[in-house]
Hints:
Blueprint lengths: L5 E2 L10 H12 L9 H21 L4 E5 L2 H10 L5 E4 L5 H6 L4 E2 L1 E2 L5 E2 L1 H5 L6 E6 L20 E5 L14 E5 L10 E5 L22 H12 L5 H17 L3 E2 L10 E5 L5 H10 L2 E2 L15 H5 L4 H4 L2 E5 L6 H18 L1
Parallel strand pairs: 1-13, 3-4, 3-7, 7-8, 8-9
Antiparallel strand pairs: 2-10, 5-6, 9-10, 11-12, 12-14
Helix pairs in contact: 1-6, 2-6, 7-11
Amino acid sequence: MASDRLYLDHAATTPILPQARAAMVEAMENWSNPSSPHGDGRAARALLEDTRRRIGAALGWGGQIIFTSGASEAIAIALGRASFDRILTSPVEHDSVLRVTPQAERLQVDANGLLLGPSRRCEEEGHETILAIQHVNNETGVIQPLDAIDRKGAVLFADCAQSAGKLPLPDADMIAISAHKFGGPPGTGALLIKDLALIRPSGGQEQGYRPGTENLPAILAMAAALDARTDWLSKAAILRARLDAAIEAAGGEIVARNAPRIPTIASYRMPGLSARAQLIQFDLAGISVSAGSACSSGSLKTSHVLHAMGWDDARAGEVVRVSFGPDTSEKDLDRFAAAWTRMAGRAR
């Protein structure tokens, strides 16, 4: 990345932490297939299992851990191979959830993207139900209060791609995480699961639930990233409040302004200028932001999340997302706010 560019798209991916990079490089120097029966393979297996325990301890998780290629694969395993006949989810989930649950029942959300009345739907008799809900929305930053939801005995699956490594994990039965969201390498993640009986096995590695050789260097790097975490959310909250104030002063609108939001993600509407035009102008100014999820922003389709929250196409099409990392500074956000203010003035 050029030194004069400003990167504010950490919700899409955040740079690999030095500790994670060092752990991965060291592992690549000398590693073997953990499934091999010889001494080198047994040593790799011991290291893999020790790392599994480290990750569980770092996340405060006492259940099983299945290593995957990321949160999307963890979601596909959990919801695609669930031992249940009914899935409830929301219309504001990540695309990776919506893709694997085309027949799921969708709950409603309010104007802030918060769930409306899931308990009534969960308690319907005659079904074994999974409630699949994102902990932190990847577009708006809205935090679903999962621990406060009355799910009436339903199994809770939580997509924690945006919250793991930042917020305490919710008390869920299954959780998806992704290393590259908290400073680990891309292409690795995990499904945390309290009881393996919740999903059907597929054969192969990871106790028969995920075939394919485990990516031990990347898994070690993921553990190192979790171990290296620092409490920077309080700083991010101060920065986000500063940016929120600047955007509103310049005539912008904050998405889900009154909802509980993680301090690292904010979405803003600039009246009169499309998100596509904003992204181009920000990019020319050396600033990287996005419009919604990185998994779909290549097509720049209108956000399904904003639609579910009651936004029409015109307003939703004027929203961009800004997301922070541990090194984001007050100077960085002042630079973004100045560019935003100039652009909004021209749009008016």
